[in-house]
Amino acid sequence: MPRIEAKKTTDAGPLLKLFYRVAGRKYGAVPEPMAVGAHHPGLLRANTVHELMVQRASTKLPANVRELAVYRVATRIGCSWCVDFGTMLQKHDGLDVERLKKIDDYATSPAFSVQERLAIAYADAMSGEQVTVTDEQVAELEREFGREGVLELTYQIGLENSRARMNSALGIADQGFTSGDACRVPLP
């Protein structure tokens, strides 16, 4: 149960009801961070627009690289909601979710490519108590993904740090998106 209860549909105005309806259709349930954030309509609108813009702009990295880096942040921060939701998104994108169980062994596991290992290591370096990114690490990422790719990866990792820390602070826990209890959206 989150520290601030989700705003109920019965307490929502017309715009929020529309947001809830769209999210419910897209994900099978209204994401709890949205329902908690609905208590501040201005921030909810800003966040929704921001997330849509980031999604549209993120075109330089392969989806598997981006999604694994974001997933790694969620596991590092310990945001069970982000892990749950991220797993569902990867599953819907047709990515191999079984290997997520091996993410702690990414450096040596044959389940991960060189590109994926680089991105996961970067997520680790950006998501600890202190940022430990090195010049060499960024140079290697730039050789692999180009300048725009490094910026996209950095942005996505930073954004997931923000999401995961906010959800954790508000006590927002997994919602059952991967168990099928909440997500009834058919796989592509």
Automatic annotation (TrEMBL):
InterPro entries: AhpD-like (IPR029032), CMD-like (IPR003779). It comes from the Bacteria. Coiled coil: none annotated. Residues 56-124 form the Carboxymuconolactone decarboxylase-like domain. Pfam families: CMD (PF02627). This is Carboxymuconolactone decarboxylase family protein. It comes from Amycolatopsis heterodermiae.
